Amino acid sequence: MLLVVLIFIAVTVAVELENDSIQETPTPNNNCVSNKRNGHNIKLKNNDQIPGYLSIYTIFQFIGILLILSVFLWLQVYRTGFGFSGTIKICNWHPLLMTITFVYLFANSILHFRNFRNTTKRKLKMQHAAIHSCIIIFGVLGIWTGLNSNLIANPPIPKFYSLHSWLGIITVIMFLSQFISGLISFLYPEIAMKYKEAVMPYHIIFGVLTFALSIVTSVLGFSEKIIFAVNQQHGHLPTEGLFLNCVGIVLIFYGALVVYILVKPKYKRSSKPDDGVTHNGATH
């Protein structure tokens, strides 16, 4: 059911992007087009309609959904599936939930300002914060399943002994710091504009670093999982190991694609008259 919801969201966003593209089609005798918002005519620059962006966004969404399906199939076929009893079945929720939250939803959240170019900056900020809230809720559940499976194992499995777990802790701390600082800096109305402008570039940089760290942590988690599986079931190594290695490569490519879209100046959302904080003439 959750996968169906994610696919529906991806399709909905694609339709919205297509509608934006239609709305922003330039006229032959004009360098810009008009869009009526809140009773006022606002001129939209032609560069808001970015050639090829819808295609690269479609690839981004396809790979993201493919990653989630691949992790689900791996855990269902090779790792005995999901459940709320038994160490392995409880633990299997951890990689799936963390892939959905700290990879897929995180990627969609940081690219949200690129996707909805006609939406007001205030609404984008609220939606950005809402997606991050969902990441925290489901991420906490994913972390709990990982820790709980270690506790109920016989004998109990030591916690926080691997590089994956260390980087996971750092990633979560960085993410929460970003979330709290973002709420205070950009959604709290009493903060002066000059402080918002000062914080914005650091918020973007640390956001990209946190996402990159989540990709590295996920790859290490897959490696840790497969190494542990090798010690338990040697006969599953060739097929499962190859499959999971391919998933890891796709995950790295996905992360690189997200960072590429995020840092490419051509894909930045240009300033609108009703925007608040901007950075070097382009919004977050």
Descriptive labels:
single chain, 284 residues, mainly alpha, two-stranded antiparallel sheet, disordered C terminus
At a glance:
The protein has 9 helices and 2 strands; from the N terminus they run αββαααααααα. By secondary structure, the protein is mainly alpha-helical. α2 (53-77) runs antiparallel to α4 (93-110).
The run of helices and strands is HEEHHHHHHHH
Distance between the termini: 32 Å
- Record the strand order, biggest sheet: 1-2
* Overall number of strands: 2
Instruction: Please state roughly what percent of the residues sit in beta strands, choosing from under 5%, 5-15%, 15-25%, 25-35%, 35-45% or over 45%.
Output: under 5%
Helix content range = 55-70%
Radius of gyration: 21 Å
Structural class: mainly alpha
Low-confidence stretches: 21-48, 278-283
Q: Count up the helices.
A: 9
The 3D shape can be described as globular
Helix and strand arrangement:
Layout (H helix, E strand, L loop, with lengths): L1 H22 L8 E6 L2 E6 L7 H25 L9 H5 L1 H18 L1 H4 L5 H32 L10 H25 L5 H40 L4 H27 L21
Antiparallel strand pairs: 1-2
Helix pairs in contact: 1-2, 2-4, 2-9, 4-6, 4-8, 6-7, 7-8, 8-9
Mind explaining what this structure looks like?
It is built from 9 helices and 2 strands, in the order αββαααααααα. By secondary structure, it is mainly alpha-helical. It has a two-stranded antiparallel ribbon with strand order 1-2. Residues 21-48 and 278-283 have low confidence and may be disordered. The chain starts with a helix and ends in a 21-residue tail after the last helix.
